[in-house]
Amino acid sequence: MAESGLEPRLLHTISHDSTSVLSLAVDEQSGLVFSGSQAEDIYVWDLSTFQEKTRLEGHTASVLALELCPEKSWLFSASGDSTVRIWDTKTLSPLCVIHPADDRVGDIFALKWCSELQTLYFGCQNTSLQWITLTSITSAISQDEVRAVPIVRPHKFFDSGPHAGSQTRLSTSLSRSASGRSTPAAGWPRGSARGAGFSTPPLDYSPSDRVRRLQVEQRHMVSSAHSGYIYALDLLQKPDRHLDGGGQRRGGSKHMLVSGSGDEDIKLWSCTPDGLTQEAVLHHSDNGVLALASWGSCTLFAGLQGGDIEVWDVETGRVVRTLHAHDDDVLALVTVGSIADEDTCILYSASADGRIRRWDASFKCTADWVAHNGIVLSIASLPQAVGNQGNIVLTGASDDRIKVWDLLFSPGTLEKHSRPTAGPSSLGTADPMISALAQFVAFKSVSANENLREDCRQCAHWLKNHLTDLGAETALLPGAEGHNPLVLATFRANKSRLAPRKRVVAYAHYDVITPGPCESWSNSPWSLTGRDGYLHARGVSDNKGPCLAIAYAAAELAKEGTLGADVTLVVEGEEEAGGCGFTEAIRAAKEQIGPVDVILLSNSYWLGEDTPCLTVGLRGVVQADLEVRSDFQDRHSGVDGGAVREPMIDMIKLLASLTEGERVLLPTFYDSVRPITPAERAMYAQIAQMKHSRASGQTVEALMARWRLPSLSVHRISVSSGSGSGNATVIPSTVTAAVSLRLVPDQDLDVITDTLIAHVSAHFGKLASPNRIGVYIKHRADWWLGEDSAYSTALASAVQSEWGQAPVSIREGGSIPSLAILEKELEAPAVHLPMGQASDRAHLADERLRLVNLLKGKSVVKRWLASSAISNASQR
Ligand code: BES
Fold first, then answer.
1. The whole model's pTM is what?
2. Where is the region Disordered (predicted)?
């Protein structure tokens, strides 16, 4: 059992297209993760956004091993198709196919690159060890030379290796991973890859085949290196202490290849430019060796069939100890850190029992968790050097998932993380902004629920403290009596305070909509969950993610010393409940905020999925409750039906009088709707032409109905909550309907409110009912139209620079009460940058925000703040 109780945090889950993840490699240099599939492709993932970049196609069977050669930007892959391939990690294109010396090698399970000898070693199913030195072909590869070497191979099915019997236990665990699919998940022992184990390379090479083919020379092979399949290789590097013929100490280092096999042996081979020489055989238990890893030059770990890990001292050739690590085969091992610094020295083991275990330098288990719903087949870690984030581990399994784990983020170490600092981060996985977002969304800051008022207050305090830690001057402003406070935070410009500088107010809200009782979430709405490049949680898109993106943009510029404007964040806690008390709070804080040049918002969405947008218009809203009340209590319809005037029937007649089709029947309602100009119509026509618009049925008419025409909606009709309410035998005494009107330029909020009240009263009067009518105005927000300015132009070019395409200007049908209030009270124009996609599902189950949108959103804000429209630093 784990002794420290360290709990890993699952940062992200990547779906692997219904195929097991047999091998993994993380290339920090290119920021990419490569995963070898049980099918024949290598998937390439962006490490900061977890989105698939491309697939490397070429192998014709399972990809069993991956090995990186960072100095040449190469990736090696080994496959059940009996070939090794070389790929360019910069261009993500194939460079070379390597055919073994012996055609009948079967699966190639293991790869090891020795950069000093420029040699790639591989271990095969037919028990051979083979190698190829790649110095001499480097230039040829980069010239993309075409050389078809016809290699004639018999197409024979290769039966098991000499010790086929020793595979039984391994095969058992692996076949369990098949989980109903036709081929065993691992693609390991025979028969795994595409049913027949391996296939032959094609004999005919078309002239368009630009990939070079190489064949291992016969003399570069130890044909019976073991008497069982070779599952694992590792490389030890030792300082060479030998004296040469002249009695001089030789410099450099000696390389020792280690091979582990199903024959239960570990063999040590000294590697020289001349080849391999067997130096020692290590044999301790009667279990096959499935995985190898090492610390320094002396400590070797062997993962065994059955679940043990042997720790070997290579110098003495003795087993130092045996860790009874897992209940099933140990299929992958990875080490992190250097033996010189024991604090950083970590071993991770992955097993067919679905668990990962973490071991420290004294071989104590410091973490143990069920990582997958299946067999864990592969593991990789991020190098310690990266921003001190050495505890990020990726695992791949037969459940067709890659999972990304952060072992620093745990209850025990939360304190350490609760004060993340701003700063450029190299990895989305370990971005302090994402860690902060995980804490932010954990607050149930539902403004509409009185019972969660304390959660809202705690959330406001957390945000204030966090923004203080990021370097802002902060304050909590009281909201209206009984309502949530606002958070005010100012990041001061780096330049002399006396220098003229712009002042930006950025608006966001920390309150969220309650997850409805009927909503079914795939994960807890209060726990940030990363899935397939998306972050899921309530409020992640609306509006906690964008709120932090703006804060981190300002904080990072301030830390870099290039913040050329004062940026004040005003973060509201009542937006989703109608913005109660916002006007008063802003008026009270006007002096504190000071003069303002421009207001920035990020609280809406793109029109589709792929095209970045700027929002240039919002509709206003009047939300009202209409109530028909009788003098009687709830009645039984069997007893009193027909004898009383029913409030529900009055209500239905009243509601029916409000609309005809989509048209609103309030008198004078459309009179002040601004006529459309030819330029505006052309804009709608252009948007309707765009690919995503056509796909989502966004015709000119539909766009106009959503964005520039007013509307009326009926949201809910509720009945008095007496006994039996809602029962089909009860006549409710009171009926309430929630309705809203969306308003557009140049409709006047007060005029429309009065018109609604007047129409409802007049129409109800015509019904000559003994019941009474009440109209209760719940929330109101004015419409907003952005104006072209240097600020909006700068925002558009910031988006263009970041996304590589110009944003589309769109309007929205939703409403943000604070926007018009801020413009009016602070006497400054607003610009609106939507961060998320149309499919963000704000206010719905499984709300999400694409990670790349959040990261790029932050960068867009940084670019905008640094632009000459805003920054006095850029004006020098
Ligand atoms: N972010 C939305 C506003 C929004 C919705 C913009 C859809 C763009 C598209 C905001 O959080 C919201 O839901 N506002 C309410 C306002 C109401 C509570 C007064 C709305 O639009 O219904």
1. 0.83
2. 159-206
Tens of pLDDT, residue by residue over 758-799, are 999 999 999 999 999 999 999 999 999 999 999 999 999 999
Q: Specify the range with the lowest mean pLDDT, choosing from 78-87, 233-242, 277-286, 558-567.
A: 233-242
CA atoms of 461 and 872, how far apart (whole Å):
32
327-349 confidence digits (pLDDT tens): 999 999 999 876 666 667 889 99
Does residue 498 sit within a domain? yes
The neighbour count for residue 574, using CB atoms within 10 Å, is 25
Q: How far is the CA of 806 from the centre of ligand 1 (A)?
A: 25
Q: Which residue ranges have their beta carbon within 6 Å of ligand 1?
A: 542, 575-576, 578, 603-604, 621, 779, 781, 812, 814-817
Residues 97 and 167 both lie in one domain = yes
- Atom number in ligand 1 closest to CA 576: 18
Q: Residue 281 falls within a domain, yes or no?
A: yes
Q: What is the pLDDT of residues 414-442, one digit of tens each?
A: 333 333 332 223 344 568 999 999 999 99
Domain membership flag for residue 428: no
Q: Cα(first)–Cα(last) distance of the chain, in Å?
A: 61
Ligand 1 atom, smallest distance to 615 CA? 8
Instruction: Print the domain residue range for 723.
Output: 620-673+709-781
| Number of domains composing the chain | 3
Q: Residue 726: which CATH number?
A: 3.30.70.360
* pLDDT value at residue 202: 39
Query: Residue 568 C-alpha to ligand 1 middle, in angstroms?
Result: 22
- The number of the ligand 1 atom at minimal distance from the alpha carbon of 621 is 19
Residue type (1 letter), 874: S
Task: Write the secondary structure of 752-763 as one string of H (helix), E (strand) and C (coil).
Answer: HHHHHHHHHHHH
> Does residue 204 sit within a domain?
no
